[in-house]
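hiii so my PI (J.) wants the whole complex modelled not just the main chain, which honestly fair. so below is everything: two entries, each one labled with what it is. i double checked the lines twice but i was tired so who knows lol
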Amino acid sequence: MSVQRSEQRDVGTSGINFPNSYFQTPQAAAVRNGYAFQTEFGFLSYFGRLSYKFMNRYLAEVSVRSDGSSRFGQNNRYGTFPAASLGWIVSEEDFLKGNEVVTFLKLRTSYGIAGNAEIGNFTWQGTFAPGANYNNQPGVRPSQLANTDLSWETSSQLDIALDFGLLSDRITGSVNYYNRVSKDMLLNERVPGSSGFQSIIRNIGQMTNQGVEFNIRSFNFSGEFEWSSDFNITFNTNRIDNLGSTTSPDAIDLGFGETRAIVGYPFATFFIVRSAGVDPATGAPLYYRPRTVDGVVQNGLNGAGVDLEVARDAQGNPLPWSAAWRVPTGKNYPDFFGGFTNNFRWKNFDLSILINFSFGNKIYDDAGKRLVGNIGFGWNQMTKTLDRWQKPGDVTDVPRLSLSDNRDINTDRFIYDGSFIRLRNVTLGYTLPTSITQDWGVSRLRVYVTAINPALLYNNFPGWDPELVRDHGNDQQRNGNQSVTYLAPPQAKTISFGVNLDF
Amino acid sequence: MNIQRNKSIFQRFIIAVGIVATSTLWSCSSVLDVRNEGQLSNDAALVSTAAVEVAVNGAYESLWSTLGAGNPWTTLDALGGDVYYEGSDFGFLEIYNLNMSLFTPNNRGLWTTGYEGINRANNILEALPKINDVTAAANRNRQRGECLLIRGILHFELVRLWAQPWGFTADNSHPGIPLRISSTQGAAGAAIPRSTVAQVYAQVIADLTEAESLLGDAPTYDRVYKSVASAYLARVYFQQGNHQQAYNFADKVIKANRSGVRFALNSDLTTILTTPNSPEAIMQIAQPEQYNSSAGLIGMYRSTRYGAAPFSSSDDFQAFLSTIPNNDARKALYRQRNGFDPRVYSYKFDITVAPTTIIRLPEMLLIRAEAGAELARPDAEVRADYNALRVRAGLSADNSTTGKDNLLAAIRRERRLELAFEGDRLHYLRRIRATNIRGQAWNSWRLIAKIPDVEISGNPNIELNP
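here's the output for the full assembly
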């Protein structure tokens, strides 16, 4: 059994206009202010676990737990989460024992259900909030819709893994396949603005993540020249299986940035109108719209695939942008990502190089629409604005400048490939021979230089930095905007010099 | 929800050995009982007359954020033809260029705050019958009346912006807006379709009529009261072309005897919109000092020597002004701000903080005059109503105009001048089915706001405006 109880209480006071610096207490100030904040939550858990190990090579474990959380509605506070695992240390079997190539081999698998309660402490409650004051009279307003049925999000996960050690563990590593199905996801679902609210938190839908993780560590050389390598890579695919009763692609609130939760697509797929360039005759922006086949709109949302045509009216004139033409266009999360580390040592020199990489996601530059050609918005422009259409016959991808047309429009003009390889960290060190340093009473003296983020080795994103995240109001919106930028500053490049001293 | 994979379940359960609780600090159920001191739970919010009173303040706050902070007034003027817009605000550019979209921030904000107010009012209306404390009897009717009036006003202002005008179809069966007459308590049933314009107007009239019967008429300027209900009923019937009822309610407001204090025209034209409790103000929304409204309503119109307002007079309005005699004191409210800026600005707000005047007596006089002319009331009686405005402006009374058409022409001229830059013109032009409103007919969809994204996202079946 475990009990967790958290209570947080913040109280603050402040003052402005003190008589002089002698007085430090708030009551001496001419203008005084104060605030208090309180929140709390509780978890109550019961659990049991049985482990069994047989002949040093067969492992089994079964566990079950029941958790209650104050974060859920009165009716649905408890969830029950069983798990089981099996392991087999193959290298302990007679046929492998003493083998000089395969020194360690273990197979393991597990299946379990876990609960997620990572939401706000009071999100299920129907509440009124203060602050709706009118003419200096205090007022309250309905602030949150109740959901007394709110309960645990669960994920059932299957793991199958192989751990290995080769050549007296000079090479070690593991391969792990996982498949996780998340159900009753805790999501903010939009409600109509005419209800007086923006959203309600609900248990909605199902999503599957599956993939393979691989890591290997190898001591390539030892002796006077040492070299060791670490490599890891993760492949992940993600798919929204269903979203319950919701029907609108905009039902799940992912904030700004044109990412949406759409059934059959990865979570946070970009859902956006595709640009068809600029009409050479008029300079007007052109857009694609989904073709309609036998009355079915081919926007990809009905499983029909995306089938597009340039949007023009019967006379052939370009039609202005319409939100009805949005189609799934690339994803927010990579196909695979990982890291590669190499450590070298020769005599008193040491060198380490860390590279990380990520491939397969798109980036949406949400500020692009205001930085290229949208002069009406009043921002400084990128030099690309100079490529604007100017006279009939011009072929360009920047439309004619206009103060009267609405150009504050999201299109795939500002979607880019987000793949990159980054040299993350390089450190070169030199340790002075102890024969010199021991005379100074120093057992070890190492000088080093470290470069953090010195270079991108591969990058297709024309903006500042392909590794980005858009900050947003809540976790759900941040999860949905992992590859959206809105003027996010790039990561710093840092070079530092240092000395390690041991006495 | 977590997209990236963290630990395997296997690892998670090894960690989960946890703390073995021997503590008896909490009984098992109370561990899960929590207090939320920052918010009030629904079942504790509206339990007494005093608690309802602060919720009524909350409904007024919606009225302030919907009508008091500049919208829809500025939107209507940007559409209506008297205003020339010279700014780079994305929302106003869309509106002024008749290119409104589902993202137009001004409209999205108006829809959101308006319906929040309607929901606030509905919560109170549903709670009131259950409250029986000692002060309930003395306050129940007033609280109900204020909430009905706020709900009616908000529905009316929204339907006029988001739906084609009254008369667009013969039976007004064209789409109006979602009609919200019960509070929202959960996701179930929250997505309702648009009611017809006829249904919305019928509910508005029912709400305003009941509010009028429940409310007293001894106002403080920042609340709504009986004559506000009467004045809004005059507006609604006037918009419908129901001249008899428009006449009746305008007449009622003009003659209202509020404990012996009658509405009267302000003698000073330069402060008609800015004086709290001005004698001609029928409905005002308070603007507390901390909400310096220079960013809202006043900021759009007010010019100083140092900076031009985003809104100035259109060429059309300047042409109209040139037909106004120089001795009309109202003409001086529109002038250039210095020697080099050729545009003409409104000086109705020459102040940084002022209450927002939603309805004032001249509108009632003009409604009564126009409805009277339509109803073939005596010419002298019709002239008397608009002559009151002429005389205040320093002109001589018009004693010669006769006949319905001539009277209507005179009234319309007075109305355009008197209520200029007060958000009146677009609705008025649609009422009289003008054929050229900035190049558009009275029933053009380009003058109608689009259903905003905040509605569509949660209400996929709502019918959209083309």
